[in-house]
Amino acid sequence: MTDLTHGIINLNGYDIGPETTLHEMFEAFPKAKRIGNGKEYLLLTQMGLLQNENGVFVGRFSFRNEALLDWELSPACVEYPKGNDSAMERRMQREFCESWLKSHLGEPDIRIDNESIYYQDWGTVSVSTPKDPQNGSEISASYKRAH
Predict the structure, then answer these.
(1) pLDDT tens digit string along 10-49?
(2) What is the rounded CA–CA span in Å between residue 54 and residue 3?
(3) Shortest CA distance to 52 belongs to which of 77, 70, 32, 34?
C-alpha cells in the first residue's frame, strides 16, 4: 500500500521505497528497460501502465548502482471533457497530481511557482508542471542518500 510518509509507493501490487534495489525492480518489472551505464541507471517502465489505488501512471525510476535515488510518475489516464484544449488538459493533470499527493500527505509544505513541495524525513516529494506546453504535470520524489 502507498505510504508516502515513509517514501513508499505501491505500483502494480509492488511496494517501491527507499530500500528498493535495482535488482528487485527488474524482478518485479521484468519488461522494464535499463538506460545509461556506469553509476547512473534509469529504469523506464516499458511494460505499460503502472496502477495503484488512486490512479494509473507512467513511471521513471533512477538508480545509482543498486540504490533508488528518485522516481517520477506521470498520470496516464486523466479523463478530459470533449472539446478540451491543451491548457485544460495540463490543468486537469495538475489537479489530479495535487489531489493524489494531498490524499497521502495533506497540504504541501511550500508552493513555489509551478511546484508544490512536501518535505519528509526520507526525502522530498513534489508536483510540478513544466513550462513546456508539450509536457504535463508529474509527481516526483527524491530520497536522501549519503554521497
Answers:
(1) 988 899 999 999 999 989 988 887 777 655 666 666 556 7
(2) 12
(3) 77
